[in-house]
Structures are given as C-alpha cells and as structure tokens.
Amino acid sequence: MSNASGWGLTARLISKHFGVLGDRISSAIANFDPETATEADRDRLADTLRATAQVLASARSSFEKEHKDVVSLRELIANDEKATATLAERLAAGKISEATVTMFCDELEANKSRLPQEIQEEADAKAYMDELQKIIDALSKQLAEFDAQAKKALQQLAAAQAQKDLQSMRAERQSQLAGLTGMKGNSTALNALTRRAQEVSNEAEGMRIVADIGQKPLDQAAEIDAIRKSVQNDTSGETALQRLQRLSGKPAAA
C-alpha cells in the first residue's frame, strides 16, 4: 500500500475504534516522502508511530482476551457434550431432576449459539491487530528510509565541507606562496637594502682611491730614501787618514 487510497480500509478500520487517529495515520503514510521530508515531518511521523504502537499494544491485549474467550468456550462446550451421556443416564435412573437437565441443555445450546460470534470477534480482533502491525511496519520503514536519507545527506555534507576546507587551505597556501614570491622579487625593503649596500660600496671605493692617491707620494719618498741609502759609501772600515781626506773633499794620495 503506497498511496492514500491504498490505506483507506485501514483508516476506516482505525477511525471506527479511535476516530481522528485513523486519518492521521493514513495521511502520515500517504504524504510522507523521505527524500523531501523535513525534521518536523519526521517528528510528526515518529509521534504517529508512537501513538499507533500504543493502539497496537491495546489491540494485542484485546485479541488475547478474545482468543482466550473462544478457547474457554470451546473447552466448556466440549466438556458439556461429554457430560450429556452421564446426565442422560442419571436422568433415566431418577438421580437428577428434569429441570436441572433442562437448565444444562439450555446453557449448552446458548454456548453453542454464542461460539460463532465469539469466533468472529476473535477474527475481527486479529484482523485489527494485523492491520495495526502493517501500519507500524510501514511507519517504521518510512522512518528508517528518512534516517537513511538524512545519514546520506549528512555524509555528503561532511564530504563537501571537507572538500571546501581542503580547497580553502590550498588557496591560503597559494596566497602565502604568492606573497613570498612577490616579496622576493619586489620587496621595497630588500631593494632599499641593496641600494644602500651599493652606496656604501661606492663610498668605500672612493675612499680607497683617495687613500691610494695620498699614499703614492709617501711611497715614492720612501723609495727615494731607500735608493739614497743604498748608494751611500760604507765608512765603517775606513782609516783616520781616509776619513780626513774624505771630509776635505781632496782625493786620496795614490
């Protein structure tokens, strides 16, 4: 039974005993679509399931009572039928009054005539219980389908969120790398440091050139002095006469 009309008999059966509940159940089963239902729809369906379960519990109790009544009545009729032979013997022997036998027969006939009705009531109670069980099964199935759809949707949502987080992380890393690359090639601070280093290098080179220029006369003077010293006569071994001649500026005698 998958549509509203399919549950018509069940709804009428329930309405006969419980009024509005029959319409609620029929509507809940017919209109509930697990793929499009909301959480509120599920709550209403679950509430209907709980209410129906209570009805089913009551229906089971009623069926058990009807079944016991039928069993007891049948056993009573069977025992009375067995007792008829004994009563006939006692009546023939004058051991029991005819009025008593008549009363017994009246009760046996009444029980036999009541048995079909009791059997029908038992059958009705069973049919009602079985219909309610079908409804419980249908409601349970729809709830299970809804929960399965919800679980699937949650899994898809979790997967989508994980993918979103992954892409967000990738974008953030790409942004960081792009920033570092840009800093490497176009950093104002690095460019300024580079220019300053070049300026200092130029200043150092200029100072070296100036120092070299100033040092050159000093080096030349030192070189001349060294030459003068190298050509001076060694007087450490001259005699007194030689010294006098050297100092006089006259050439020494041969």
From TrEMBL:
Superkingdom, natural source: Bacteria
Coiled coil ranges: 129-163
Biased composition (Polar residues): 230-239
Alphabetized UniProt keyword annotations: Coiled coil
Species, as recorded: Massilia aquatica
Name of the protein described by the UniProt record: PspA/IM30 family protein
Region annotated Disordered, chain positions: 229-254
